[in-house]
Write a structure and sequence with these properties.
The structure is a single chain. With about 400 residues, the chain is mainly α. It is about 75% helix and about 0% strand. The chain is built from 16 helices and no strands. Helix 6 packs antiparallel against helix 11. The chain is globular.
Length: about 400
């Protein structure tokens, strides 16, 4: 009995290590990008452009990377993921060597691209494990990732305070080593390789048009999602600049992000129970309120104490939307197009990051943090309003459009 229990826990424990190390790396690269690059002589506008370009390139490269991963004959998905992590490890370590502005820009841009390319591969590894019948609890592992993100947000903030910005690439190098090790160890029973799950092929590959034309108002749902992610990414990418007017620094930013991550946990651990109380459509609709209140609270916060408290809206905003949207696509989209559906919602996140980084950098240089938070609140409000109308009870949104009868 004890051996069986241990065997049942092993997949979740190993995947928890993978998710934890991935989100720790994500924290160092994405969240502390402004802290590190400002110290290296970059302006807010330059940081925004760099993150935007990296986001665009990662979105363009994603289909190619996925096709390469699917078509590999000599490497498994696990080994291919490890290869990208090794490249990320090298780029992070080289930040300590190449001190020139151009070298730092190229290397950090590469890190921003790689961390976004690795994310879906890590998810695919987890799904591959589940598809092979292993008892992996994805929600628990993802919740552990949020804990890791929060812990390292606080820890990196302290490290910068004590040792300066050079501590970021040092910490990243250590975390990349842990991520590489966790990916390489994500295998079971020795003789069972972890393969990429078989994905259904879309009927037509014409830039996603069949999916966009097939479901009612799906374009507007995607627009609403992009608005929410613009608001979310403005608060996270430029978190350092947001806390500065309130007297905060890198340490306070790390503490704020720690609270943000902790507040995500109740939803991630309880979402299966929540789905029994209301459908995914309802939870997607309600999540817009959380995005709006998060941005509004940050805008009007008079001090760091209030700003810390405002992070509670991460619970019914980003955390709720992240899980509810996955179930929403699975419940409303035909099986042959679910991969396309998930991809379009993922692209909204990327688009939100790109637009937030580009616009936010210029807003900060031109008018300061208040203007950035005003824009974040407006964007969150627009996304909330759209979802509130589109997904109301009795709405036809996301129901298939019937093809016209042919005679």
């Amino acid at each position: 009995m004890q051996s069986a229990t241990k065997g049942a826990l092993a997949p979740t424990l190993r995947y928890t290590a993978l998710q934890g190390s991935y989100w720790a790396c994500y924290c160092c690269i994405m969240t502390f990008s402004s802290v590190y690059l400002l110290a290296r002589g970059f302006t807010n506008a330059q940081i925004g452009v760099l993150i935007s370009v990296a986001g665009i390139l990662s979105a363009v490269l994603q289909p190619t990377v996925s096709r390469v991963a699917d078509g590999l004959k000599r490497l498994s998905l696990r080994q291919f993921c490890a290869l990208l992590v090794a490249l990320q490890l090298a780029a992070g370590a080289l930040l300590l060597v190449l001190a020139s502005w151009a070298g730092q820009a190229v290397l950090y841009g590469l890190l921003l691209i790689l961390i976004q390319l690795i994310m879906p591969l890590c998810s695919a590894l987890g799904m591959a494990c589940i598809n092979q019948g292993f008892p992996l609890n994805f929600g628990v592992a993802r919740g552990a990732g949020s804990i890791s993100f929060g812990v390292f947000s606080a820890l990196c903030g302290r490290l910068v305070l004590w040792f300066g910005e050079v501590s970021i690439p040092v910490a990243l190098t250590v975390l990349n080593l842990l991520l590489l090790l966790s990916v390489l160890l994500f295998r079971f029973r020795g003789d069972v390789p972890v393969q990429d799950p078989v994905q259904p092929q879309a009927p037509v590959q014409a830039g996603g048009k069949p999916f966009l034309l097939r479901y009612r108002h799906v374009v507007w749902v995607l627009v609403a999602s992009a608005c929410l992610f613009i608001s979310h990414n403005l608060l996270n990418v430029f978190a350092f600049q947001i806390v500065q007017p309130l007297g905060g620094g890198s340490s306070e930013m790390g503490t704020m992000l720690f609270f943000q991550s902790i507040f995500e946990l109740p939803v991630m651990f309880l979402f299966a129970w929540m789905l029994k109380k209301a459908g995914s459509r309802t939870w997607v609709r309600l999540s817009g309120i959380g995005f709006f209140l998060h941005a509004l609270g940050a805008w009007v916060a008079p001090n760091m104490g209030v700003l810390y408290a405002v992070q509670i809206f991460e619970m019914n905003g980003y955390a709720l939307f992240t899980l509810a949207s996955i179930y929403f696509v699975n419940e409303t989209v035909d099986e042959s197009q679910r991969v396309q559906g998930q991809a379009w919602f993922t692209m909204c996140n990327t688009l939100g990051s790109v637009l937030a980084s580009f616009v936010g950098g210029f807003l900060l240089d031109l008018a300061g943090a208040a203007a950035l938070l005003t824009f974040a609140t407006a964007s969150g409000g627009a996304g909330m309003a759209l979802l509130w109308v589109l997904l109301r009870k009795g709405s036809q949104t996301m129901l298939p459009v019937k093809s016209p009868r042919r005679f």
